[in-house]
Amino acid sequence: MPGFELFGPSEHKEVNDVLDSGILMRYGFDAMRNGHWKAKALEAELQTHMQVKHAQLVSSGTAAVSVALAVAGVGTGDEVILPTFTFVASFEAVLMLGAIPILVDIDDTLTLDIAAVKDAITPKTKAIMPVHMCGGMARLKELKEICETHNLKLIEDACQAIGGTYEGKPLGSYGDVGCFSFDFVKTITAAEGGAIITNNDDYATWADHYSDHGHDHVGSDRGAETHPFLGYNFRISELHAAVGLAQVRRLQEFLDIQQKHYTILKDALKSIPELTFRTIPEEGVENYSFLNFFLTDLETTTKAMAALKHAGIDGCFHYYDNNWHYVRKWDHLKEAKTLFPIPAQTKEALNALSTKSFKQSDHYIARNISCLIKLSWTEADVKQRALKMVEAIKSVL
Ligand SMILES: *Cc1c(COP(=O)(O)O)cnc(C)c1O
């Protein structure tokens, strides 16, 4: 997944353009910037790649999710349905807006289980936020139908799945708003950064204002701009956008390498009859940033992880024991350990997570191993890796 593995001359050139002009800010200073508008150029590239009307860059993927929720009208006391398997940023963004994260079970897609989503809907539900984890995707058609029936917004957290598609559409472009992250370990990186994409003109305008202190961005005199509403500073810098611009132009190159490496590993693992693969909905094409598979039970999976480590295989994760990605270890969330006071109803909803059973999620995450696909491997590296992985896993079955 990490685009940082392949930094080259294009990243250097884009960054040097910005340093040479000296204007590190994405807005204003028109006369001094030698015609360089890296953030604007990256937004234009994203619109083309993602086949959407609008793209708005922000300072991180977490900011992207926050802005997406805000423009979708999510606020105090609203409930947002999201999966038990995600990155902590998803619930952080919900809580930042005063809304309540409602965690529900995942299925064999490693994302939202449709029945669990339906069960979780209440009069307070405002949005459903599938998280396309590890390059695969949620059952978006079913989720969209639920959203239409209940008048909810569909917000795609596609931070880990840039380049994947569903019904031929780029992931992130299927729902009302889509979110991307360009943090250091993502498929394309800007060091830090993120984006939202949408076809909704109002959402685009609101995201533009909200992410820059509510500035209306009318005219070329920043000091004379008005503030139609309150906002925050979620701006990306020109330096970060410059790196992202070079990287987005290489997205297809990265995806092709990932698919090649992924396919070699997957074909090798198919020789293990006890091993099954994560389900990708038939409408979808993943971005091949991770290869995910299931073993028979928790004990075998734990042993397989140890065997992989012993064989020198790095970059494989067992999220069951991980405190960034899976509900089981999110004690700070369950105990509602916030820096400042939050409403009692939010606290109650969070505390309730500690007694809630997520048996179905456990069933999948306990048996899941997720292996990062690197760009910098040679074909010989991948083939040798495949042999070692098969041998290690077979040794514990
Ligand atoms: C990385 C990530 C984010 C947040 O992105 P940052 O840029 O690190 O803030 C959000 N959601 C998911 C699923 C992620 O993997």
| Principal-axis shape | globular
CATH superfamily of the largest domain: Type I PLP-dependent aspartate aminotransferase-like (Major domain)
Helix content: 25-40%
Strand content: 5-15%
Biggest β-sheet: strands ordered side by side in the sheet = 1-9-8-5-4-2-3
Alpha carbon gap, first and last residue: 29 Å
Overall mean pLDDT score? Answer: 96
CATH class of the largest domain: Alpha Beta
Number of helices: 14
The secondary-structure class comes to alpha/beta
Number of strands: 14
Q: Point out poorly predicted stretches.
A: none
CATH architecture of the largest domain: 3-Layer(aba) Sandwich
Provide the CATH topology of the largest domain.
Answer: Aspartate Aminotransferase, domain 2
Order of helices and strands: HHEHEHEHEHEEEEEHHHEEEHEHHHEH
Rg from alpha-carbon coordinates: 21 Å
InterPro entries: DegT/StrS_aminotransferase, PyrdxlP-dep_Trfase, PyrdxlP-dep_Trfase_major, PyrdxlP-dep_Trfase_small
EC number: 2.6.1.109
Keywords: Aminotransferase, Pyridoxal phosphate, Transferase
GO molecular function: pyridoxal phosphate binding; transaminase activity
Task: Characterize the structure shown.
The chain is of the alpha/beta class. It folds into two domains: 3-250, 3-Layer(aba) Sandwich (Aspartate Aminotransferase, domain 2), CATH 3.40.640; 252-394, Alpha-Beta Complex (Aspartate Aminotransferase, domain 1), CATH 3.90.1150. It is 39% helix and 14% strand. The protein contains 14 helices and 14 strands. Strand 4, helix 6 and strand 5 form a beta-alpha-beta unit. Helix 10 (298-310) packs across helix 14. The radius of gyration is 21 Å and the shape is globular. The two termini are 29 Å apart. Bound molecules: pyridoxal-5'-phosphate. InterPro entries: DegT/StrS_aminotransferase, PyrdxlP-dep_Trfase, PyrdxlP-dep_Trfase_major, PyrdxlP-dep_Trfase_small. Keywords: Aminotransferase, Pyridoxal phosphate, Transferase. It is an enzyme of class 2 (transferase).
